[in-house]
Amino acid sequence: MKPYDLxxxxxxxxxxxxxxxxxxxxxxxxxxSMQKPRKVLEAINKNYSFNYxxxxxxxxxxSEEATSSYESARKKVANFINCxxxxxxxxxxxxxxxxxxxxxxxxxxILPGDEIIITIAEHHANIVPWQLIAxxxxxxxxxxxxxxxxxxxxxxxxxxxxxxxxxxxxxxxSNVLGTTFPVxxxxxxxxxxxxxxxxxxxxxxxxxxxxxxDLGCDFYCFSGHKLYGPTGIGILFGKYKILExxxxxxxxxxxIDVVRIEKSTFADPPLxxxxxxxxxxxxxxxxxxxxxxxEVGIDKIGAxxxxxxxxxxxxLDSIDGVKVFGKAPSKTGVVSFTMDCxxxxxxxxxxxxxxxxxxxxxHCAQPLMDAFNLVSTTRASVGAYSTIEDFDKLAKSLNKVKxxxxx
Length: 407
Description:
CATH architecture of the largest domain: 3-Layer(aba) Sandwich
CATH class of the largest domain: Alpha Beta
Shape: globular
Structural class: alpha/beta
Radius of gyration: 22 Å
Strand order of the largest sheet: 4-10-9-8-7-5-6
Number of domains: 2
Mean pLDDT: 96
């Protein structure tokens, strides 16, 4: 087995060579969006420059090439998450994927009095669509609590299940705490009570191997830009037997079978859910990103990131006046923290002048912030290219924050 060559990996990311405010860039905002390896950037350029055409309907050479590359990307995704390619729906991102499930499956199947279980750790994208559907259908939202310093116990959700439970939606990994949820156990709880399970996998699939057959989830989604791919492309996995029973969410080209003035019939999944011109080049580039991840090894990436995040968590937690939120043993990907001397926005602004990029705010997780009586945190997050030295520089910059605020 080849060792993890961090320097070689970093050399493949052009953005890591730039300077910010005359300081070398320290990129610790990967949970928001990963930087892109050269392989992905070259694929975008090539497919816009030489192979660009619309897909599926053209009979000329360029359209045939584009269609082949586009559908090849679908196969790459299917192989990557171990499912059938007909269970892979291309969307514009995870948010669109969750909305697709909420409006297509939810409108048809959720009834007045039904209950939708989520957690307080959800990204807003896995809360708001369910709120909108619940309001329309007369259903209720039930939220499971999360201990920031413990691995999540699936029993917390099991206790909330009733004969009215219709949906269990939850994150694979919290984008604030880094807590890894027991996906397989929670999906079994959903199956046993006759509910559907939908997993926000945005922070999960980027750190570990996921297997749709093994996990047993009904739906799983993620965004391409968090997996070293471009923006504007996302994936919805859905079990085919469920997708087959779902009505279209959007109407238009490519999702049709036959259109008549009186009535239309629709294509089989996944095309039924891909109305209009799809994100062609973005899908192809995501396929290249997956190739890159597989070349490096997702297990190797995850192990490296775990070492870096454990180091960073311990280091920041040792600084006087810094409080780390999220210390579950299973945590990965992110370190969220506050300082008793400065607001998170001030922290992020000051350390930016040291070339350090972090995220500050509520991280689209306001219910979680409310549960901890917080307005915001500063969040440092890692990718395959992150280093222990990145956190050493972050810790040094936080001491500068303390000096500026007279501590």
